[in-house]
Design brief:
Structural class: mainly beta
Largest sheet: 5 strands, mixed
Radius of gyration: 41 Å
CATH topology of the largest domain: Immunoglobulin-like
Distance between the termini: 93 Å
Strand order of the largest sheet: 2-9-8-4-6
CATH architecture of the largest domain: Sandwich
Number of helices: 2
Number of strands: 26
Helix content: 10-25%
Amino acid sequence: MNKRFYYFVIFVVVSQLLFCSVVFAKSDKSQKSAKPAKVEANQPVAPAKNQPQASAPSNARIKFDTLVHDFNKVGPDTNNDCKFKFTNVGKDVLKIDRLQGSCKCTVPDLQKKEYVPGESGEITVQFHSPKFQGATSQHVMVFSNDSNEPRVELEIKAFVQLAVQVTPELLNLSFIAPNGGASPITVTSLDGEKFAVTKFESFGNVISISVDPNKISDKFIFNPVVDVNNLRKNLNSSALFTITHSKCKEIKIQYSCLREYEASPTVIIIRNAVVGEIQKRTVYLTSNYNQPIEIESVSSDKGIIKVINKEKTENSFKFDIEIAPPLAEGKSRVFSDNLRIKIKGKEQIDVACRGFYKAAQ
């Protein structure tokens, strides 16, 4: 009985081993017989499912008769309309996505957005002119599906011509001339219409003019009064007349003045500064009116800047200075100081110094 059981166990084990060997042999054979799919060199590979497809370039073509419209002379603060004609000279439907004006004063409009090949259309632009005289220009951007030129820029040009003229348009003022060098200002109607000047104001109260709002005429002559102290604070700005002319409500006049004294450079920059390494620079002080200069004092806020030599000519000064970068404060990588030059009986001229420490290696 024991022998028969022993032979039975051996038979079962051998059978299992034979079965496993046959299964592994078939699996290996099937793997070797499987070959990768061959792709022909010129055969396109099918895109993966759900992959977004790139759209083909559009053959729509937008062509404008002109890209620039010049109104020439227009009145101030007026609405002016112009049209830009275009044609779809391509083979696909032209789709205009949007129009964009360069400012609120330029408003484009289009009746429809799609045009078949050969069809024409018009973009209407309403242009609101500025209040003041002079050349001006604005732009309109046209965005479409033209793959060659998806964005086209249109230009609107004009010259604003006031019905009332002011002369001079620019007052060249001076610190050494009587009354700041201001000349008389003439305001004249160009179309003969009479009006009143009701108000005059200037930025910073640099210029003052007395007006009579009850006086009606087609021509006025004013003698401006200049406040030199206020002029020092506002060297370049403008003044404004308010008038009652039907085609012109405001007239602007500009003024400009040179500083009495000027430093060069106005700012000193020190780069890659190292504590203990002295930097040398030169500062020039000049009179723009060729006037003698008398220095009352020269100082610096923090003592970082020191004047080691100065040379005087008839209308200028030359200062040789040394800049000693101080120890850095905490983690700060910069330092600063100001050289202050006080001119006797005149203004103070400041020269700023900014330093940047050399980065640690």
